[in-house]
């Protein structure tokens, strides 16, 4: 559990957007983007330097990641069986953000990081975003700044530390260590040129715009909980705001009894559904076409696996090649929220995905991937809410997914605030939860999916 004092301090940071100690975030991203040279080009998948292609696609070092085939059988959802390519990355990377008080306000050390798959190439990232292959310098490149703060953190305050999953539709059993480490105010820390301190308020504005804070930073930020700060209850601007309702939801439902009841319900959902995932050769996948340029679905649905050649003078290695997953455009994730007994709740679903470590996780209300459906009746439950009245929409921003592995994977993030008197007819695998309860579950491990965590981060 977060200490109340820390949760109040993080709320104060989320309400601080003007500070003399930090640069203009837009100007900083622009300046760092213009300081380097970038070139990202699609190349034949079978001709990537350093990569081998047989039953799978793998790097000659036997590190980094592989692209393999899987065969899936399940009783969750409308499709009982299928096969697909999937990215396998067994290494546990570090996603870590350093925080410290500056003039009494918590600031977060963010880096301007280029990732080849981002539509906006340079975005704010965590202080450290690296797999062991990266920080052990298998690529022969430069060292990872600030890594020691996350490997040797015993003398510092460990605010958040948890293994969390990533995209269960595109990764097989992928997980990273999400961390927030507090640096004492009086400890000397040199800020490198691609890094800057930002408040949560500044990050909140970047998140509202979309395409400015990368996925790996969003998942770390979702581990923060908030509590009401002194004097804010009487603040007229804050008192009736949606932000106030979000903060109050963070303070409710996170007790042991509520967590126990939610976990019991979740285990019941896991017992209902079967998920059998088996690795198979890429050439054994049904309905997929493997060519020299790409691996694609026979009907050009879902996604492609393509080869990319990258030049980026700001990265640890200036040039490299790799496979990437390019999804069909138009993906949407939506989170319904509603005041229930006066407290804001969000509607999550227990959702099975082939790459999850334990079958199901709590996901956003709606996952809408246009490339997955051939008939209108195939759309998932509650999909009609992505077209909710504009007055109900609290968040509407396109956010990039993991730009290190996914190409132009922009997902529209929607948060829809349903009126209290509106009846939402949800299936049995859906449940209303407070943000306080979800926050406890995030800090407990593999309960909340990456897409749901990303949406929660956008509710800063």
Automatic annotation (TrEMBL):
- Domain of life here? Bacteria
- Coiled-coil annotation reads none
State one molecular function term (GO).
lyase activity
* Lineage of source species: Bacteria, Bacillati, Actinomycetota, Actinomycetes, Pseudonocardiales
Q: What is this protein called?
A: Oxidase EvaA
The UniProt record lists the dTDP-4-dehydro-6-deoxy-alpha-D-glucopyranose 2,3-dehydratase domain at: 28-223, 262-459
